[in-house]
Amino acid sequence: MIGIFDSGIGGLTVARAVKQTLPRRDIIYLGDTARTPYGNKTAKTVVKYALENTEFLMRQGAKIIVMACNTASSVAFEAVREEFDAPVFEVISPAVEAALEASRKGAIGVIGTRATIRSGVYEKMIKARLPDAGVHSAPCPLLVPLVEEGWLKKPETAMIVKKYLHPLKTRQIDTLILGCTHYPVLKDLIQRKIGKRVRVIDSAESSARSIARTLEENPDLAARLGKNGTLRVCVSDLTEQFKKTARGLLKMNVSFETV
Ligand code: DGL
């Protein structure tokens, strides 16, 4: 089984991309809805939650772990990798790879939660590969609650996205990384507001491709994963809003387990 976790609903964009890329693989998803959001918590707290989430997924039989949360990936990746004897994937390096490939002049924008942007992880990774890159980051804390509320087509959301993107637009970025698992849901709107010449990088799709590549390169690992195409969605607190948004995101009639 592929174990995927997020602070809540956003990581389902990664689960959806993994399902599309690897339709026959068994997936277990954990949304830590009782403790969401992670994006405005301290690194210490996010590390603790990430370790607990991973332990749960491993107990359920996950053989690889996907941290489908940029905030957890930014601050807890090393801790999770050291603690557990399983391959652990984060969602940051695949997005960085895709951005470096897409960018023509190395002017790269990154949007994410406060904790992700504060960690500086995207900037460090991009500069390690391309020291001359201009990296311009902007925290967008209001976008997570707007997605959770399903305010995808509201004019207020469009206004907020425009305001957040304005400083990146003036820097003339040519590539924009969606550094939060909620943002792919707003991808069309973000693309409209940043302009069609900017390549928008969705970390969900690039992460799914990187997992698929790793499995191709490691047949032993691939052989340990189930192949019935099942998807279990577990949450630490189940609300009607979660069910509605999750079904809309997955475009599947999944059932949910409270754990
Ligand atoms: N999943 C988080 C991320 O990708 C966003 C939601 C949260 O703040 O917990 O950063």
UniProtKB/TrEMBL annotation:
Pathway: Cell wall biogenesis; peptidoglycan biosynthesis. The active site is at residues 69, 180. It catalyses: L-glutamate = D-glutamate. The keyword Cell wall biogenesis/degradation applies. Substrate binds at residues 6-7, 38-39, 70-71, 181-182. Its EC number is 5.1.1.3. It is an enzyme of class 5 (isomerase). Keywords: Cell shape, Cell wall biogenesis/degradation, Isomerase, Peptidoglycan synthesis. One of its GO terms (molecular function) is glutamate racemase activity. GO terms for biological process: cell wall organization; peptidoglycan biosynthetic process; regulation of cell shape. Provides the (R)-glutamate required for cell wall biosynthesis. HAMAP family: Glu_racemase. NCBIfam families: glut_race. Belongs to the aspartate/glutamate racemases family. This is Glutamate racemase.
